[in-house]
Amino acid sequence: MDYRGRIAPTPTGYLHLGHARTFWIAQQRAQQAGGTLILRDEDLDRDRCRPEFAVAMLEDLNWFGLHWNEGPDCGGPHTPYRQSERLTLYLEVWRELAAGGWIYPSPQSRQDVQRALTAPHEEDAEPAFPVEFRPPPGTGRGATEPSAVNWRFRVPDSEEIVFHDGHCGEVRRICGVDFGDFLVWRKDGFPSYELAVVSDDHVMEITEVVRGEDLLTSTARQLLLYRALGWEPPAFFHCPLVRDAQGVRLAKRNHALALRTLREQGRSPEELRAEWTPLPESQAAATKFAKPKN
Ligand code: GLU
Q1: Which of 127, 131, 119, 121 is nearest to 157 (CA)?
Q2: Integer Cα distance of 223 and 215 in angstroms
Q3: Is 90 exceeded by the pLDDT of residue 66?
Q4: What local confidence, expressed as pLDDT, does residue 1 receive?
Q5: How would you class 88 by CB atoms within 10 Å of its CB: exposed for 0-12, middle for 13-18, buried for 19 or more?
Q6: In-domain check, residue 288
Q7: Band of the pLDDT at 280, cuts 50, 70, 90?
Q8: 200 lines ligand 1 (CB under 6 A)
């Protein structure tokens, strides 16, 4: 199979050096494999995504030296490349999950989840959804419309999801401990990030997902979706996160290292790239996916 990689920015603000570094690695891996690179605009969050950020995102990435073979600006065999235009696909996938009895309607909001838990959790980690909020098995099976309610994927409690990551090596996450029943559909009519990204990566025939290390737990969730849908998962390569001088990982609200700002300051992409610690040679080439153990 030919290598197909993707970069998947979200236009909720200006992209920063951390995005550029991850995408640069994605581009290098696609080039080294003689493959194709796709740009997918992950603009599902209508409240936070803005068209001007979507335009800036493409400009900034081009300036930095990123070039893709398929995308919203250049088209390709999997048009559209904007998630907001792919809702029909997501609904079909939601129906497949409902038909298989993998998901259930969940009227509890995230605030309910927060209140139900008292243990402290690490930075940014979502508290596992409390199992007492789960409806009886079979609830929601065969539903044909999500209606105005949240839907969650029922995780196999205590199962350990083990996968090989091209950068991090063997990764293990325990269902019900490291993460719980996760959202696949939101009551406002939109799929969750997990459902959308798995549907797109599958349909766009992505063979390797390169993204930030902060999404390792999401990969465990996504592997459960691949399994439920009977789809072959891609390989994964999670890159180390870029941190600022204080050791805090970059966020879009941190404008100092926004690509725009750096460009306005007269910094060149070559100079910025020269400051990066290169990844070990052994990780330069694309890795084969090792199936998760059941
Ligand atoms: N769109 C996601 C983000 O900007 C990345 C998703 C992914 O690479 O799977 O955080």
Answers
A1: 131
A2: 12
A3: yes
A4: 77
A5: exposed
A6: no
A7: low
A8: no
Which CATH number fits the domain that encloses residue 223? 3.40.50.620
Q: How many domains does the chain have?
A: 1
Q: pTM of the predicted model, to two decimals?
A: 0.90
Query: Does the residue 294 lie in any domain?
Result: no
176-223 pLDDT, tens digit per residue, is: 999 999 989 988 899 999 999 999 999 999 999 999 998 999 999 999
Ligand 1: nearest atom to the Cα of 19: 4
288 catalytic? Reply is: no
CA of 10 to the centre of ligand 1 (A): 7
**Full residue range of the structural domain in which residue 187 is found:** 4-283
290 occurs within a structural domain: no
Nearest to 153 by CA among 192, 131, 181: 181
Kindly give the number of the ligand 1 atom that is closest to the alpha carbon of 218.
9
Ligand 1: nearest atom to the Cα of 7: 8
**Which of 215, 216, 221, 239 maximizes ligand 1 atoms within 8 Å of its Cβ, making it the mutation to test the pocket?**
215
Q: How far is CA 273 from the centre of its chain?
A: 24
Residue 120: pLDDT band with limits 50, 70, 90:
very low
Contact (CB, 8 A) for 286 and 32: yes
Q: Is residue 289 part of a domain?
A: no
